[in-house]
Amino acid sequence: MTSRPELQAPPEIFYNDDEARKYTSSSRIIEIQAKLSERALELLALPNDGVHRLLLDIGCGSGLSGETLTENGHQWIGLDISQSMLDVALEREVEGDLVLGDMGQGLDLRTGVIDGAISISAVQWLCNADKSSHEPRIRLKAFFGSLYRSLARGARAVLQVYPENLAQRELILSFAMRAGFSGGVVVDYPHSTKSRKEYLVLTCGPPSLSSAAPRGKGEDGESCSDEDSSGDEDNQSVCVSDRHRPRKKQKLNKKMKGREWVLRKKEQRRRKGTAVPADTKYTARKRKARF
User: What is this structure's pTM?
Assistant: First the structure.
């Protein structure tokens, strides 16, 4: 049995020039990536309103999953740690914007600019300490915290993962929940050893009806779940709100400190021997909003 890639070498070393070209030229890999990407896009449940969304492809590799996003009319940004993979993506002239970076160090994106995120077979790499400076828990915290900040309110992230065991799956999910996400794990074909696939379906925001994890697919390709659920819930799209999140409400019960209060405090400081600026007509005057 072939060893898991993440156990053989760090991703930037494992996916060298030869492996990147071999990976991208494999018809089997291309077919699998297309199916997984289509399923991830389906689980994103984007509104069918004709609006092109800005999506994030985490661990985009050579752009195979990004092609699915392009075919569905979306713009996308691809992040990957392997320069060789990104070089192949450039040669293939993919439509997305490519970024070389380590997701374990956080996503350097503006707050609330992403309408949805997908990741195919990448997030489980964060559970491996490839360097002495790598601590899986710190890297998972940095990744999910920055992903949460970059998503618009109500947007989803669908992360297809191959956890090594149940403990690894729980570790990944726990840090997603700590970052503020709601949702859970969707398992397609749970009784098939070969076809079983796991997706973390996460929603940016508190739990609600729309943030509940969808049902997984069964052996016959239909949805299956131990819980009863209406068909309308499966087809429910998420509501992506304004990219600019509302600021926290300021407390209105604070008493305004006027000129008399300032003068009294300045006089107290003078009595203590503290150097205080002289009183003028500008003392305690409220500044304008702009200069």
Answer: 0.72
